[in-house]
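The following block was generated as part of the benchmark described in Methods. Ligand: NAI.
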Amino acid sequence: MKIAFFSSQPYDKVFFDKYNRNFQLEYYETALDKNIVNVLNNTEVVCVFVNDKLNGEVIELLHEKGVKIIALRCAGFNNVDLETAKRLNIAVCRVPAYSPEAVAEHTMAMLLTINRKTHKAYNRVREQNFSLNGLLGFNLHGKTIGVIGTGKIGKAFMNIVKGFGCNILAYDLFPDKALIDQGINYVSLETLLKQSDIISLHCPLTPQNHYMINAEALLQMKNGVTIINTSRGGLIHTIDVIEALKSKKVGALCIDVYEQEEKLFFKDLSENIIEDDTIQRLMSFPNVLITAHQAFFTEEALSEIAQVTLDSIGKISNGKMAKNAEVMLA
Ligand code: NAI
């Protein structure tokens, strides 16, 4: 059985080749869209990542090519038209929990970096500039951190935050009873926005919460709030946040995801002219930290992604339910 990988990077090949026993693997650097489907030949499985576009039209074309399984080597699945896949009887699997800690740890790394300005200190000291001016941060101890989405990653992040002595306010559509028993304080979204010094997003992107951080939400927040988004770019209305950065309503912004990231992230564009003026504006702020969808990127996570994806594909093709990967539609 052949698996075609799209948006593949050298590290995908390293980890999938390492764990593959049963399949023929074909790697394409290009993202999956309607123009590339023609390369498929006798391929029953496509393996895709966060920025591959699997809308209805693409899934119809995959179906015509005989594709039976769409394997997402990531957790989020907002880029897949699940209804069309279901109608065409194409199985879709993902890796729901490859390493929540990897994302949670990166979230804390971003928060510490933007707050204590270690990225600036590193460069300064290398230039023999030992001045502290401009590097002032604040203690995380005693601050209130609002966590939106208390699933696997939100939970892992709250565990880290507890160690820093922060107060936690949580918001989720479905509060977790076990977390309440552990003393986690669930509040309304409005209360979280009003009372948090730092707000971290850990919910999936859905049609209901698209742009949940918009001008109206920003108005409710504390002056100088720090916002961190390691979930999905579409949760934040970027233009509204830029206005809030300009007015100093937002004191700092850390993003590992960006609405238009498919045109930028995972590519070396250092020789190119970037046409996206919004990200250029964001990059011009001294209090904005951007990483390029890197939060998942640990050895442990890549090993788990490769093993679970290959395992799920094997189990789906044998008509068995996957063990760890959640088969959403089979
Ligand atoms: P999860 O499914 O374990 O938890 C998500 C939580 O969000 C659930 O408790 C759910 O009830 C809640 N939720 C859903 N809609 C909500 C809303 N409108 N408001 C508040 N809460 C809401 O998911 P997990 O594993 O914690 O991942 C969260 C997100 O992180 C993923 O959907 C994905 O977008 C993102 N992610 C980012 C990565 C990166 O490298 N930057 C890597 C992996 C995931």
